[in-house]
Amino acid sequence: MNCRALLVPLMLAALAGPIWAAECPALLQGELPKLRAKDSIDLCQRFAGKPLVVVNTASHCGFVGQFAGLETLYQRYKEDGLEVLGVPSDDFLQEADDSAETAEVCYVNYGVTFAMTEPQRVTGAQAIPLFKHLTEQTAAPRWNFYKYVIDRQGQVVGRFSSRTKPDAPELLKAVEQAIASRP
């Protein structure tokens, strides 16, 4: 086969943009820095086509114990494809100033194994694109530990307040709905 015949389709694909752009929901387009790591999480690569729970967290919040419940939720459903993304934020003035302390709370105190980002803005004009899209589909978080359940197509199928525990029947129902959805 002629090398030019192979090269032209590759060049056209490169001009069209990333292969995932057409398949990746808008809310997952972008990267976020991992908590206490040198690399980033490519949201599309990691989460596109998967059921996902996104939660804004804070290390000094009275709801911090929900990390244990979120980890249990993740372990319970990860074989079904569920992912959990924790996004620490100081928007409500309850996140540690040092990401090392945030990491200790998550990883050491609560044994978190799901994905965590460096602290981000989740409300207002400065919110990261992920939370701007979540806000457009539902509403902005009103406090720490708001939970958003997203189906395989990138649509929010449930939004839950800080008071809703990770094992609450209504949250579990939304997670199971997201798992049952098809890409």
UniProtKB/TrEMBL annotation:
Q: Which InterPro entries match?
A: Glutathione_peroxidase (IPR000889), Thioredoxin-like_sf (IPR036249), Thioredoxin_domain (IPR013766)
Q: Which Gene3D superfamilies match?
A: Glutaredoxin
Tell me one GO molecular function of this protein. peroxidase activity
Specify the signal sequence span.
Answer: 1-21
Sorted alphabetically, the keyword list is:
Oxidoreductase, Peroxidase, Signal
Protein name stated in the entry: Glutathione peroxidase
Glycoprotein among keywords: no
Q: What family does the entry list?
A: Belongs to the glutathione peroxidase family.
Is RNA-binding included in the keywords of this UniProt record? no
Q: Its domain of life?
A: Bacteria
Q: Which Pfam families match?
A: GSHPx
Q: Which residues form the Thioredoxin domain?
A: 11-180
